[in-house]
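Re: the 337-residue chain
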Amino acid sequence: MLVLVIVSLTSWECYVRSKGFETSYDDNPALWADKRADVYEPADQSTVFIGSSRIKFDLDIPTFESATGDHAIQLACVGSNPIPILENLAADPDFKGKLVVDVTEVLFFSTSPHNVETPLKNLKYYKDRTPAQRVSFQLNHLLESQLAFIDKDRLSMNAELGNLHLHDRPGVFGEPIFPVEFGRVRFNRQEYMTDHFVTDTAARNQVKGIWAFFAKMSKDPPVSGPKLDSIFNVVKIAVDKIKARGGQVLFVRTPSSGEFLFGEKMGYPREKYWDKLVSQLQCPSLYFLDYPAIAHFECPENSHLSQPDAILFTNEFIRILTQEKGWKFRNLPAVVK
């Protein structure tokens, strides 16, 4: 019986790998909590990143760590508003490090409860996790690092059932289905597109259609007036707390392109949202369109960078941090021109 089980599992592993699958980690609260625990590393040895999915795709962690000597701690959450995590770090007196905040306007300037569900869930897990959960996480890590077929998001029974194309009942709308090639997650929580996705026009258009679906389904107009001012105030209070302890904070607007960028410019005019935000914070900021070396990227599905472009973006991002923003790293001293 044991031999049969081993042969069956080995055969299934070989089959899914032959279909282009590779090891990918479940980006769940346990993985996020494992990275949240790293923010207490010395400020001159680490940089923390928060935001939405763009910084997860656009920051190439191996490139960043190799060039700077810093440990990149990725705390961004897909499809989420990062402000709850910003407030959590600001309220933690032991966090005094370097922090990069990625801004995706439709999520960052949002008051929708849905957009903070994942950050709040992750924060609660981090606060309440038990010794048993920590041990379970280590065991899961061991398995996930070796076996592709245990990919929960793409190869589990629930994932396969979710991929069935069934007609919605009247008045019921199911969540759009992303192509399985769109994203993979590494243990450091970096997310990346597969090469197949980048070269597959149909898959890219499928994701573009999903972005259009979300835009169409959103009924709430962009936040403005007192609600927008409240967001500015909350962010400023959090940033000031971190800076008062000696921490450094930088805000970055990562690339988008095509129809997605056009819609963002229309719905969230830069002067009303980004410019007003950074003018109140008095901390460094980087808007990708201001820098020719990173302003030209064409995102495969209009919202995230491919792996090769993420490396190019990360290298230029590091150059801007050190040569124009005055940030220092162990491997790269600041050389402000």
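The chain has one domain: 2-323.
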